[in-house]
Prior knowledge:
- The structure holds three protein chains of three kinds.
- Chain A is of the alpha/beta class.
- Chain A has two domains: 6-234, P-loop containing nucleotide triphosphate hydrolases (Rossmann fold, 3-Layer(aba) Sandwich); 240-404, no CATH class.
- Chain A has 14 helices and twelve strands.
- Chain A has a six-stranded mixed β-sheet. A four-stranded antiparallel β-sheet of chain A has the order 2-1-4-5, with helices on one face.
- Chain C is mostly helical.
- In chain C, helix 2 runs parallel beside helix 7.
- The B-C interface holds B 1, 4-5, 7-9, 11-12, 14-16, 18-19, 22-23, 25-26, 29-30, 32-33, 36-37, 39-40, 43 and C 3, 7, 10, 14, 17-18, 21, 24-25, 40-41, 43-44, 47, 86, 90, 94, 97-98, 101, 204, 208, 211-212, 214-215, 218-219, 221-222, 225-226, 228-229, 232.
Amino acid sequence: MAQPLLAVDGIEVRRGMNVVLKGFNLTLHSGEVLALTGENGAGKSTLLEACARLLPLEQGQILHSDVVVADHEGRRRPTPLVIGLALQKNGMMGSEYVIEHLETAMSMSGHSIDPLPFLAAFSMEHRAKDLIAHLSQGQARKIAVLAALLPAFASKQPALILLDEPAAGMDDASVSVLCEWIAQLRTLGHAVMVCTHDQRLSTCATTHVDVSTTKVTTVTPNEPTSKLETKPQPVKAISPTAFGWTMQWRTLAWLNHNAVASLLTLGVLLSFGDLLDDLDEMQRYGFLLAPAFAAGLCGEAMVQASREERTNAWWRAVANANPHSGILPLALGCLLTLLSTLSFTLVVEPSIVMVGGFVTFITWHTIRLLQEATNRLARPRAVFVGLLTPILILPYALLLDLLSR
Amino acid sequence: MTYLAVAYFGMLVAIALWTYTVVQRSRRLNQRLEALEVAMSGRFENE
Amino acid sequence: MKQKVGEGLLFIGFTGIASTLLLALLWAPSVSIDAFESPAAQRIFYWHVPAAWAAFIAFGALFIGSAGWLFKRSEVMWRLHTAGAEAGLATGLMTVWSGCVWGAAEWGTPWDWTDVRLNTFGLLTLLAIYLVLGRASQPDGVETRDTFAAFGLYGFVLVPITYVATRIWSIRHPGPVVGTGDDGSINGDMGLVLLVGAISFTVFIIGHIMNSMRVTLLEQRLEQLQANMDKVI
Lengths: 405, 47, 233
C-alpha cells in the first residue's frame, strides 16, 4: 500500500484539564475519505485540529507524508502537503472578498483554477465580489468549505483535506453538491478527513472511525456522478505578510491602532511649546523619536483582527504563520519621524527618519510576538499584554543615550 | 525622619494586609471545601 | 500540618520584618552626609535590599515552577509557579516602591529609564503582575498553564541581568555592598540589621510561597469537587 498521507502515532491531547485523546492511532491514505463520528466531547474536533498541527501534543507525533510535522516535544515543522482546512469557525475575516479568499486558499497549492463554477454549484456566483461580512452564516460556511476543497482541486499532488462539521447550516442541495465533490476528490487521489454528525456526509466515506470507541468500519462510498475537468494555472502562494498588508490597507487598522496614538503623542509634545533648543541631545532625540516609539508600542492590529473566526488558526495550518504587517511599521515609523522632525525642527534629518523607522519596526514586531504568545488562551483579550510593553523602554532609552554621544 | 517612619509603617501595614488576605483565602477555601464535601456525602446517603 | 507551618513562617517572618523596621529606624548607625545626599533616607536600605533578595527567591521559584510544569507537567511545579508569581508581585512591588521613595530623596528622581538594574527589576515586577492578573482571568487548563509558564520561564532571563547589572553597567543604582571582597563592605552594625532583615524576608517569603501553594491546591480540589457535583446532579 502507498505511504499514508496522514499518520497519527499514539497521540495524547489535552483540552483544558481533560485528556481528550490518549494513545490514539490513525492512518489516512491517498484516495481515502475518513468520517470521524462519536458523541459530543469525544474528541473529533480535537483530533482534526491536532492533525492540522494546531494543538500541542502531550505524547506521540503527527506525520504528513512520512514527515514528522508535530511531536510531543513541541517540534513543529512546515507540512510538505497541500492542506485544505475548514474548522467549525470559518477561518476568514469579514474584510476579505469571497473570490479573494478562495484565490488565497488555492494559491497555497501553487496552482489556481476558476472558482466561479464551484460558486455557481453552491448558488453563490453572484456573491463572488462581495465582502464576507455581507454574507449570511450559511453562505459564509459554504465559502469556508469551498476554501478547503479548492486547493485540492487545483493541486497537482495529493492533498490532505480536513473538514469539521462542513454541512452545519447547509441546505440539502448544497450537502449533495458537497458529497459529490468529496467523491471526486477521492477519485483524484486526495485524502479527506471529515468530522460530522450528518448521515448524508457519512455516505461519501470509505472508513468510519468512532472516536469514543476507536471502532473502525470500512464502508463502500458513493461514486461521483461526473468527472471534473480543471485547468490548474501556476500561481505564487499568497504569504501571511501580503495578506496582512492587504487587510491593513483595506481596513486602515494601522491608522486606528498605531498612527492615532503616535499623532496624539506628537500633539502632546508640541503643546509644550518651543522647548527643543533648551533640551540636551538625549532629550532632543527622545522628542523626535517618541511618536515612532508610540506607534510601535501599540503592537500589531492584525493579531486581534485575525482572531475573528479563527483566521489565525487557518493561516497557521495552511501557511505556517500568522498574518502580520511585514515592513509596514518601517514605512510608518519613517513617515511619523519625518513628520515629527519637520514639526520640531523644520529640517529633514534622513538618519533620524531611518532610526525612527527601525524603532517602530522592532517595537511593533516585539509586541506582536508577545500578543501572539497569548493566542492559545481561552480568553486572550482578557490578559494585559500592555503590562509587558515597558520591556522596550530600556532599550529605547539606551538607544537615545547612544545617539546622543 | 517623620516621613521615613510614615513610609515604613505604611509598608508594614501593606504587608500585614497582604498576609491577612493570603491566610483568609486559604481558610475560606477550606470552609467551602468542607461544606461541599458534607453536601455531597449527604446527597449520597439520601440516594 | 503544612498549613500551620506556612502560616507560622509568615507570622515569624512578619515579626522579623517589623523588628527590622524598628532597628533600622532607631538603632542602625547613621551614614555620613558626604556619602549620601539624604542620610535619613538611606535607612530604607534595610528594607529595600532584603525585599529585593526575597524577590529574587520568589522569581527563582517562578522559574523553577515554570520549567517544572513545561518539561515535566508536574502539578506541584505549577503550584510553585503560581506561588512564585504572587510572591514576586508582593516583594517586587515592595522593592520598587521603597526604591522609588529612596531615589526621590537621594537622586532627586524616583526612576531612571537608562538604569539597567532599575528597569529589569521593574520589568520582573510587571511580569509578576501580568502573570497573577492573567491567571485570574482564564480558566485553568493546559493552554493557560503553558502560556503563562512560558512567560515565567523567559522572563527569568531578566534575573541574572538585574543581578550583574550594577557590576557591569553601574549607571545610577549603586553597586553591590555585600560579597564583593575588600571594597564595598559595610559597617558591622549595619550588616547586622541587614542580616536580620534578610533572614526575616526570607522566612516571610518561604511562608508566603507555602501558603500560596496550598491555596492553589485547595482551589484545584474545589474545582474537582464541583465538577463531580455537576456530573451527579
